[in-house]
Amino acid sequence: MNLTWSSGVSSATPFAPATNKALPKKRRRFNVVSLKRRAKAGSAGLVKEPKKELSRILRTEAAITGVENKAKSNSHKQLWPKALLEALDDAIKRRRWQSSLEIFALLRKQCWYEPRCQTYAKLLMMLGKCRQPEEASHLFEIMFSEGLKPTVDVYTALVSAYGHSGLLDQALSIVEDMKSVVDCEPDIYTYSILVSCCAKFHRFDLIEHVLAEMLFLGIQCNSVTYNSIIDGYGKAGMFEQMDNTLNDMIENGNCHPDVFTLNSFVGALGKDGQIDKMEKWYDEFQLMGIKPDITTFNLMIKSYGKAGMYKKMKTVMDFMGRRFFTPTVVTYNTVIEVFGKAGEIEKMDQYFLKMKHLGVKPNSITYCSLVSAYSKVGRIDKVESIMRHVDNSGVVLDTPFFNCIISAYGQAGDLKKMSELFMAMRERKCEPDGITFACMIQAYNTHGMTEAAQNLEKMMISAKDNLGIKLIEC
Predict the structure, then answer these.
(1) pTM assigned to the model
(2) Has residue 433 been placed in a domain?
């Protein structure tokens, strides 16, 4: 099909031809959605939560902290199972891998403890997401020492731990080991994780090997497998291979494209600036009966913003309103970032105010974009204002936010404030990274404070082994 953006999927596209009929006014309702922020760029942040939910979170944090303290002591060997298991489960969900391992060590000391493969699988999967393959390998050895026989789920979690860390050869080796263990043959879930990790690190040569192995074993690809490959090709800019994989997916017959497939195409083509193709594929997926979701619209807004097509960006937001898609913190963060990078400070401020007016709570990503934009135009007074907002917001600050604010004051020449923020960063247990040190060293060198810059370099080198720091240009 050779459809253009104006080909008019009338009821489902944000760019259907306008009509002259006056539409009845409807009272728009905005529901506040709670989302958690992720490790990679494009993730969501926190929004308003009910008081009961906030209270539950605070109680959970207190419970985890309490159990952590007991884990460091050798005198707590008779704890209630419910409290200990809930604390472990919450620590795993929050990806606090060090706390999880400490609580698990305490769990193993209890007189009522019985080793279970399910517990190990959860911990291994969490360690994989946190990129801690060495800890995962050690935990796997502990499981053997307790006399447990690994299940398919445990092996698959270990594959994930190595794969997500980029150690693909080790991940493939584990899959080979599974074949020699009775009742532990790798399944579609194992291979889907392996394919996803290969695509993530652009090892498409290994994907061909894995697919051939699956075919030999009679394991058919599912939608997750195809979507992982399509997403990988898209992010690598290999658009012809992305199209071919979609054709294979359709011809497979056992699985069909879905909204994740649509989002991979929209995101990859939009990021590459191929707006016409992005619009064409949006319409193509509509004709397949695949409806967009909030992520689709957020990706389109970002693509139009990057291309400087602000009218189309606004058109998408208007369409979202007509279709009752509630803008999330990601939506507003995207718009704020677009206008901030373009130097459109007034428009950026308007959307920031609108965001708060509608009850969507800004997060650290929001404040990072605002600080970067103000710093770029030399409005350090506005940066001070943002700092007051942050103090009163209760937002959990992270390393990227501190990097942004440290860079802003460093570029403005306020080295005292920059140093104070560096100390505050460490007090809040936000570990500095390569960007933190690079920005501060550059600021000190610019102002002739070579001794301070050298001291900071020494600090960075001493922290390098523990934090994996690399010197990065700020």
Answers:
(1) 0.73
(2) yes
